[in-house]
Amino acid sequence: MTGLKHAYRGATVLVALNADLLLFVATLVVALMAAGYLGTL
């Protein structure tokens, strides 16, 4: 049980540290999709 707690805590720390990078990548993907859609009009 303690191993599961430590793994969950480690995953939470990794997500917290990389949250801004994930947000940046998601924004970039959405912007590229929107540009592609507008380019087909």
Helix content: over 70%
Q: What's the count of strands?
A: 0
Kindly give the count of domains: 1
Strand content: under 5%
Assign an overall shape.
rod-shaped
Number of helices: 1
* Helix-strand sequence: H
Mean pLDDT: 85
Biggest sheet: strands, sense, closure?
none
CA-CA gap between termini:
55 Å
Structural class: mainly alpha
Low-confidence stretches: none
Rg (CA only): 17 Å
SSE topology sketch:
Blueprint: H1 2-40
List the keywords:
41 residues; mainly alpha; 1 helix; 0% strand; rod-shaped
How would you explain this protein's 3D organization?
The chain is mainly alpha-helical. It has one domain (1-41). It is 95% helix and 0% strand. The chain is built from 1 helix and no strands. It is rod-shaped. The termini are far apart. The mean pLDDT is 85.
What's the short story on this structure?
With 41 residues, the protein is mainly alpha-helical. It has one helix and no strands. The chain has one domain (1-41).
